[in-house]
Design goal:
It contains four helices and no strands. By secondary structure, it is mainly α. The chain has a domain of 55 residues. α2 packs across α3. The longest helix is centred in the first third of the chain and has 14 residues.
Length: 122
């Protein structure tokens, strides 16, 4: 079984109207590059760790950055979300927490109790 992600011809046909027109030299295969971009983002990879079947990592990165700045992906997402109509349920999931670098120093060296749990004087 392959771990590669490939957009189908039907999926590409639904979003190809949002692609910018090629100027001068024709672009490389949009299906291959977009599948590679999705594979990298979905798996949390670095661009240089993308499988070679998607093409050079620099091509994936440059296309992602260029189309993001042009708003291509925003238009694609808005169009696809608009086709579905009003959702029955909306869920937000956030599993990212960021702690300040001094959060580790909140424990006292003696006794191992947190500073907030120490008895207050006065």
């Amino acid at each position: 079984m392959s771990d590669q992600f490939w957009l189908t011809a039907t999926q590409i046909s639904r979003i190809c109207g949002h692609f910018p027109r090629s100027r001068g030299k024709p672009r490389v295969d949009d299906r291959r590059v977009l599948s590679g971009i999705i594979h990298v983002i979905r798996n949390g990879l670095r661009w240089r760790d993308a499988p070679a079947v998607y093409g050079p990592p620099k091509t994936l990165y440059n296309r992602y950055v260029r189309w993001t700045r042009m708003g291509v992906f925003s238009r694609i997402f808005a169009d696809l979300a608009g086709e579905a109509g009003v959702p029955e349920r909306i869920m937000i999931d956030s599993s990212h927490l960021k702690a300040h670098r001094t959060a580790a120093s909140l424990l006292q060296k003696k006794g191992g109790r947190a500073a907030s749990a120490a008895p207050r004087e006065g």
